[in-house]
From TrEMBL, chains A, B:
Pfam family, one: Peripla_BP_3
InterPro entries membership: HTH_LacI, LacI/GalR-like_sensor, Lambda_DNA-bd_dom_sf, Peripla_BP_I
Matches recorded under PROSITE patterns: HTH_LACI_1, HTH_LACI_2
Entry keywords, A to Z: DNA-binding, Transcription, Transcription regulation
Protein name (Swiss-Prot/TrEMBL): LacI family transcriptional regulator
HTH lacI-type domain ranges (all copies): 3-57
Recorded GO MF terms: DNA-binding transcription factor activity; transcription cis-regulatory region binding
DNA sequence: CTGGGGTTCTACAACGATTGACATGGCCTG
DNA sequence: CAGGCCATGTCAATCGTTGTAGAACCCCAG
């Protein structure tokens, strides 16, 4: 049925091992035999069996990418980028939706897919996995997003404090004085870090800090942003600008503003974070922090692969993703 | 390092075979031994080695989902749904971005991931794979979307002709007379089928068919929709409604309309297809054909699994995905 | 022409799980 | 008490690939 190594060997008139050697670029092979073998491989359309190879080598060239939900545009774009980066290096990505379950738990539960995968890129949305890898099973792991306090993993993320500072400062620079924040989360996650940058910017601008303008909300999707914006508009003194901690929140907020008949950016300016495609085409188009997702993916994969094939004990790395502030209609008149 | 079957056996005080029997639900086992074994499995956190199992059994419980690009919202949502449906049945989905390369080619190239995957769900955007599976390697394949002419695969899709008819008829019913279509593609793909429904509806309504109102465009993304809409507005007699063959096109079109200062739906009504989340929160929110994606995923996975484990020679199946027309602001004043 | 060193290739045993044939002993039934 | 079923154990083979060890060969120096 399936062609296997021995079929190729038979056809090429060499031993099974020689074929294997050809495939694995073993140095000492005559160009003659190499040619013979390659001809046989081509003729039979032979493809190595990954299961067998992985069983024998203990390495599969599969990595996992764990994200909260792939239907969320940011994560979809991230997944696409990681897949591309991995494919370029000949490895395959398994995308894992953690779906709100405590992701750390889930990974351990999954048992790393029965030892198939070589490592994992983990992108938690809020909770950070402090305890993964304490198990002996530990495979290499690269963490994306905010780093947990006592992290012991390689880590790739935007400097969220700085980026949030920039975003907020931009709002200040166009003359806004009552700047709200949507997406302020608890814990040590994204929300907290971005809030830090936001507050810092307010302080730097000499603006008062009004707790009523910090909206926690329950999630990071459009409805959450829409609801938070409604709450802000209901305030006795509504804001003249909003910094949303991700683009979905911002798009939800824009929707509320449109419904309320308010003009953006004239009445309320809005800034997001992530630069998802939806924001670029929305009207008004969304000003946002744009992390370089290709860079992120490229380096996350690179870091993980480095870990997998070699220096498992090298020092922990911490990479900062380049970003830009994309100024669009939601802040520029 | 890793716990294996024999470790479990040792701890439970039984033979390896018995442990294997427990795991594979062999019927004749005392509840006592079963309990012992299960305790040992839990204690050691044993996870069967997927590679070994797959090598031996010839089945991996992995399936692939091939989509053009996962960053596209419709496909992201589809991928999420398929992953969920598969996980429910204990199987894992590998998502494959075909990225515009002739997907058929690519699949064959990939050699089905070295025999790892048990089958594939294939969702081409335009070109239909007529020749896949002619190779002897053929694994079960379920096709999503428009069926190619001489298809020999199981197939799950919305009745696009009917849905397009409904969408267009809806525009007629709100009084529109010059209804354009964006996304008319060549070949036997999505574009052609939806155009058929569109034309049918025009004819049924006794409206003239103006070729100038059928825009082919180059792709299925926002920029394509925006460009097509610009072209339509440049006509001596612009349309008063547009049926876009997917939501991204529609969102692009809406953007152009907003830029042109036209009111939706008063000046131009817009209908999309797919019901992606962006459309629901856009302002105006987008009227669209909403296929039941969960149903689609559930049945595609079901069909594939049926094929994989059993009647490989059963008759070809053809499932029609339920859909609704979601009427929102872009057509309802 | 003989022996050492390198090259080129091969035989064999693993990797971990599953499966089949078969043996064993215990218990129940008739 | 014999025959049958049940629950398990033993043993060996198998899936396809690769690492280890070593065989066979060639070339060249002494």
């Amino acid at each position: 049925m399936t062609t296997r190594l021995s079929d190729v060997a038979a056809r090429a008139g060499v031993s099974v091992k020689t074929v294997s050697n050809v495939i694995n670029d073993y140095p000492h092979i005559t160009s003659q035999t190499r040619a013979k073998v390659e001809a046989a491989i081509a003729a039979l359309d032979y493809k190595p069996n990954v299961s067998a190879r992985s069983l024998r080598k203990g390495r599969s060239d599969f990595i996992a990418l764990a994200i909260p939900e792939m239907a969320s545009p940011y994560f979809a774009e991230l997944g696409a980028a990681v897949s591309r980066a991995a494919k370029k290096r000949g490895i395959t990505v398994l995308i894992d939706q953690t779906e709100g379950e405590s992701a750390a738990e889930k990974l351990v539960l999954d048992g790393m897919r029965g030892q198939l995968i070589d490592g994992i890129i983990f992108s938690p949305i809020t909770t950070a996995p402090t305890r993964i890898g304490t198990a002996g099973t530990a495979k290499p792991l690269v963490l994306l997003g905010e780093r947990p306090a006592g992290g012991t993993f390689d880590h790739v993320a935007v400097d969220s404090v700085k980026a949030s500072f920039d975003a907020t400062t931009h709002l200040v620079s166009i003359g806004r004085r009552r700047i709200a924040a949507i997406g302020v989360g608890g814990g040590a996650g994204t929300g907290a870090v971005r809030r830090k940058g936001y507050r810092k910017a307010l302080k730097a601008a000499g603006l008062p800090h009004d707790p009523a303008l910090e909206l926690a909300g329950t999630g990071y999707h459009r409805p959450d942003g829409a609801a938070s914006m409604r709450a802000l508009l209901a305030l006795p003194e509504p804001p003249d600008a909003v910094f949303c901690f991700n683009d979905l929140l911002a798009l939800g907020a824009l929707r509320t503003l449109a419904d309320a008949g308010l003009s953006v950016p004239d009445d309320v300016a809005v800034v997001g974070f992530d630069d998802i495609e939806d924001g670029r085409y929305h009207s008004p188009s969304l000003t946002t922090i744009s992390p370089d997702k290709e860079w992120l993916a490229e380096n996350a994969v690179g870091l993980l692969l480095e870990r997998i094939s070699g220096n498992a004990e090298a020092a922990r790395r911490d990479l900062s993703v380049p970003y830009t502030l994309e100024i669009r209609e939601s802040t520029a008149g």
